[in-house]
Amino acid sequence: MVEIAPGAVPSPNIWNSPSVYEIENRAVDPDGTIEAAMRSIAPWAGRTVLDLGCGTGFHLPRFAAEAARVVGVEPHAGLAAAARRRVRDLPDVTVRVGAAQALPLPDASVDVVHVRWAYFFGPGCEPGLAELDRVVRRGGTVFIVDNDATRSTFGGWFRRGLPSYDPAAVERFWTRRGFQREPLMIRWEFENRADLSAVLRIEFPERLAAEFEREHRGLTVDYAVNLWWRHN
Ligand SMILES: C[S@@+](CC[C@H](N)C(=O)[O-])C[C@H]1O[C@@H](n2cnc3c(N)ncnc32)[C@H](O)[C@@H]1O
């Protein structure tokens, strides 16, 4: 049995298919729109970055290129081990097993937090937000990357996969907690249809994945995201 820290939100896409999730990560946002938006709000050069719910650590080397120190926290011990292997030659990066609700980090030890499609999905994530209040230094910044289900091809697919999802409730949740929304349009850009097909099948049930594959031509999928952010 793989060790998983208490409170982890089941994430079958990356837990069951990390190699396909790697293909997905390579397809996401080839122009670096999300990173550019983050950098314009809170640059991380010379600072300490926490990548929370870091999975196999895809984004850790990118932050390490500029940050003084990078910490990845991931509740799935097998994925955390993969993240450690990815950054073994980067001395300023560490990876810890843990969950958002009980961060294995000291008080006031982080400047910039990046949470991409992990745990912070609106109502219910208050314990993790309290932990971020504890570990983020005064003047630090928290970034949450999440889907914008109100627009784009991917947003439409997301709503069809999760009809009960209420984007207005999610927006109310974040704005009441002092977060600002940066709406961004990114894209998935695949090298071939087989990759698109495989990624659709880790994100959606087979019936929907097959429908989307039939309906959608080409290798590009327009994808709206919300970058929620708050200075502490
Ligand atoms: C869809 S994956 C995204 C991984 C990574 N952020 C990326 O973009 O490659 C979601 C990740 O959130 C992690 N996760 C689930 N529950 C969590 C929690 N309570 N605290 C922190 N991370 C969590 C999962 O283990 C998984 O690695």
UniProtKB/TrEMBL annotation:
InterPro entries, A to Z: Methyltransf_11 (IPR013216), Methyltransf_Superfamily (IPR050508), SAM-dependent_MTases_sf (IPR029063)
The chain positions of domain Methyltransferase type read 50-144
Extract the Pfam families matched here: Methyltransf_11
Name its GO BP terms in alphabetical order.
Answer: methylation
In alphabetical order, the GO MF annotations are: methyltransferase activity
Residue ranges crossing the lipid bilayer per the database entry? none
Write down what this protein is called: Class I SAM-dependent methyltransferase
Question: Which species is this UniProt entry from?
Answer: Actinomadura gamaensis
